[in-house]
Amino acid sequence: MNVPKRHKSITAVTVFAVTLFFGCESNFKEVQKINFSEFVPAGETDDANIRYTDSGRITGILKGKKMLDYSSLDFPFTEYPKGIDVTLYDKKQKRTFITSNYAVSYKNTGIIDLQGKVKIRTEAGQMLETEQLYFDQKNEWFYTERKFKLTDAKGISNGQGIDFSKDFKVINSQRISGEIEAEE
């Protein structure tokens, strides 16, 4: 059988290209493995119970069913995938209670991101409920742009966007509605 030269050339080029493709794919996968770094926690804790102190005085207690420590990363953080239960103490030992279904604490910024059925309440009976709330540890300040429900002795208000001090003494809220007792 006489096969034209042109057909032989196309067949040879096709065989060479297929061989080159499969040979490079194998090397490409090896290169990917070399550059792959696993995103795994440096530490993992079940039933965490952490106490924060300042000059021998307890300032906070954090409890979490699961804690994942990513402190070995360039931007270190601690993750609480099963939520947290926090008690904060002021200088007069008055308590503020915080719960959420999920939390992330960023070491470099001191910001804690609370997510999923976030509730914060004081011993005085004030309570805020929202789906996401940030806490600036350095300034002891909470804030969110999400919808919220605030309950206190004056009434119940709903809104979107609020920031406040950890003791609820200073509250700045936006787009609010509800019935609030006004001081005269």
Automatic annotation (TrEMBL):
InterPro entries listed in its UniProt record: LipoPS_assembly_LptC-rel, LptC
UniProt-recorded name of the protein: LPS export ABC transporter periplasmic protein LptC
UniProt GO molecular function: lipopolysaccharide transmembrane transporter activity
Annotated Gene Ontology cellular component terms: plasma membrane
Gene3D superfamilies: Lipopolysaccharide (LPS) transport protein A like domain
Species of origin: Flavobacterium geliluteum
Pfam families: LptC
